[in-house]
Amino acid sequence: MKADLIIYNIGQLVTSRELEEFSGTAMENIEILENAYVAIKDGRILNLGTEDFPKDLISLSTKLIDAEQKVLAPGLIDSHTHLVHAGTRENEFVDKIKGVPYLEILKRGGGILSTVEATKKASIDELVEKAKKSLNLMLSFGVTTVESKSGYGLSLESEIKQLMVNRVLNTSQPIEIVSTFMGAHATPDWYKGKTSEYVEEVIKMLPSIKTKGLAEFCDIFCEEGVFSIEESKKILAEAKKLGFKIKIHADEIVSMKGAELGAELGTISAEHLMGISKEGIKELKKKNVIANLLPGTSFNLGKKYAPAREMIEEGVQVALSTDYNPGSCPTENLQLIMQIAATNLKMTPKEIFKAVTINGAKALGREKISGSIEIGKKADMVIFDAKNIDYILYHFGINHTDSVYINGTLVYKKK
Ligand code: NIG
Ligand code: FE
Question: What is the CATH number of domain 76-362?
């Protein structure tokens, strides 16, 4: 078969294929090929290898691109974001600098609830426009798949509006959007002091979200003063019964055995985990739950970091995401998150690349179609203007992207 596109002379090709034999931790088992090529046909990976590409892959219409010894990696996967919302919250940021705790701001009716107010007032078109700006930025950082949670609606109508935005985005810009229902993000003002009644309300929303096919996942903010272990269990168990895949924001600010609950219920991933217990780490490993770490949130809130090394040594598979949202982590820059993971989570470059490629795909149930450069997979790829992956983490605070391909099509090129 002839290729549509061949990218050759790649200095390091991060395939993110998981190797059986390797040295280092189980998070370092990804393949990196030197002096490599990748061939694409009909938006899929046709072939890859080292040295010269086989000449029989070329026809008159094959496009050839010289990577000039740069790094080529699978398109990055941002598997945890609160992409769709209106407004910004820089006023709270200043309060936080002055020492007001994040949960205190929420208790006062600010935080998530102020974004709920703004989002309620916005039209679908306005939400789409704002989200598209963020997606364009994400794309420029090499991101090709983004998970997007609702949770700034908190009523059926407004949650549906947010999820409809995900649907529109999926057909009006190149990044693949994975949709998550997170009606249990906070108790809205109109249920103040009646969280258990709001929990029932969320449970009532589930069938309608499911029948409309608006979300693949269901997530919850399991946190002291937000949703308790029992409340989280109730909602997630019901969601699972209805056929949602489930996720949990666990042990983010206060340790409350959220990770253990995720493992017990069979969540695909548990997110944040700054306060995870030793037992929680063991449970994640036992039940094969991905630990989705969001160190940008620790950085921005000035909080402690998740014990990534302990998790990795225990054999837990780790993903990394931005948590992009207007409160605890207002950044679209996954490369910055990777750099924070290097310096603060002490993750190695290989572990970090695995976390934002194949493990990000696993956290979204996409590991059979994306997250690695393997024959038959989606040709989602990013070329970095760097000679090796170490350099990308070392030279921090800049954008290393040279170009981005989704389904084999060039969708971003550095000017
Ligand atoms: O993941 N933890 C809950 N949700 C977000 C923050 C949302 C917000 O502050 O608007 C998070 O950190
Ligand atoms: Fe989050």
Answer: 3.20.20.140
Spatial neighbors of 265 by CB under 8 A, at least 6 apart, are 233, 236, 237, 240, 246, 248
Pair of tokens at residue 95: 């309060």
The reported pTM is 0.97
Cα 380 → chain centroid = 15
Ligand 1 center to 107 CA (angstroms): 14
The reply to whether CATH 2.30.40.10 applies to domain 5-74+373-413 is yes
- The DSSP bridge pattern shows strands 269-272 and 245-250 to be parallel
Which amino acid residue places its CA nearest to atom 12 of ligand 1? Answer: 328
**CB 267 within 8 Å of CB 289:** yes
Residue among 196, 74, 83, 100 nearest 146 (CA): 83
pLDDT of residue 196: 97
Note the pLDDT tens digit of each residue in 166-216.
Answer: 999 999 999 999 999 999 999 999 999 999 999 999 999 999 999 999 999
> For residue 113, which ligand has an atom nearest its CA?
1
